[in-house]
Amino acid sequence: MTKAKRGNGQGTVRRLPSGNWQWTITLGMDASGKQIRRSGTEKTKSEAEKAKAQAIADHTRGGLAAPNRVTLGEWLDRWLASRESEVKAKTHASYARSVRLYLKPYLGSKRLQEVRPADVRYLQDKIRGAGLGTDTQRLALGALSMALKEAVRLELITRNPAEAVKVISDRQKEGRTAQAWTAEEVARFIEVARQDRQGMVLVFMVSLGLRRGEACGLRWANVDLERGACRIVENLVTLEGKPHISTPKSANGRRTVPLSQEAAALLRTWQAAQAEERAAMGEDWQDSGYVFTTYKGTPLHPDNLNRALNRLCERARVRRIRVHDLRHTYASLMLSRQVPLEVVSKQLGHSTPAFTLSTYRHVSVEEHSQYAVNISDLVNLSTSFRITN
């Protein structure tokens, strides 16, 4: 039996009668004064030396005690916990959902250090095989890639296997999620919605291009009717079916939005109605400070606007769209009226005008047909056609 020389704080590596190599290291003392010891067995001396060195490195940076034994599921749990204070609550909930529904069920039991690109492709095939689309793939693979990238940074693995697998687009579904109403459809919708309590909120949103969470999260303290402006500084989003206060998606999302005369008039009408409701409720009124509230003064549940929009679409006899498509509609109508792209982008709180143009430009069939220009008009040529053999 061979025993390597013990160095100060370097641990030992020795050969066992079985032919395997055992490594042992003392990493200091815990809070109770007890020695912190780590050990393991490998097939070769070099592997034992590497495992011992890894244990030292992990202890130094507060890492995992035995990274070679950690499963992907265990690492994902640790990664999620570390991200909770670094990202918005809705983003963290999205990560957690992908981990719970896809990553852990399909790959969770696999050792972290043994995950390969083929395993990630297997995950992708399972997601697609379940009939789930590109967005689900992107969210699941994105969360996995970020978790594995962190493992690379901490030297738990040498490369990120998720980077070798690309999202497979479902071309049949591309371009069908985002829709925009025509000007005629918007007019029919507003005619009906402005007579409905929740419809007023939807009219306000399509008038300014606000996100659902931005409208629901608007407080009177951030509205200046005299100056005709409102400040977007808070979102009211839905997490696990419950309203949750969040902040704008980006620095550009935190912005001041000018109020049109009609939007300001809508808010004044709402403010007067809310004052009557406050008086009628008396001590039962809950002063939440939000602009758009229930009859009792509590914040509107964002999900209720989805149901309200479906109901009002049927009543107005217009195409059923998503609440977020009201924002698409606003942007498309503004751009079709030649409002400067930079102005529209700033109103929407986008990072760049290029993003606005690529994401929210929806050209109607009528507008598109106007640009079916004769080639003869472009080249100053009188053109007639005659087929000869």
From TrEMBL:
Sorted alphabetically, the keyword list is:
DNA integration, DNA recombination, DNA-binding
Instruction: State the source organism's domain of life.
Output: Bacteria
Q: Answer whether the UniProt record assigns the keyword DNA-binding to this protein.
A: yes
Where is the Tyr recombinase domain positioned along the sequence?
A: 182-365
Enumerate the spans annotated as Integrase SAM-like N-terminal domain: 71-126
Q: Per its UniProt record, what InterPro entries does this chain match?
A: DNA_brk_join_enz, Integrase-like_cat_sf, Integrase_catalytic, Integrase_recombinase_N, Integrase_SAM-like_N, Tyrosine_recombinase_XerCD
Q: What is this protein called?
A: Site-specific integrase
Provenance organism: Deinococcus aetherius
Phylogenetic placement of the source organism: Bacteria, Thermotogati, Deinococcota, Deinococci, Deinococcales
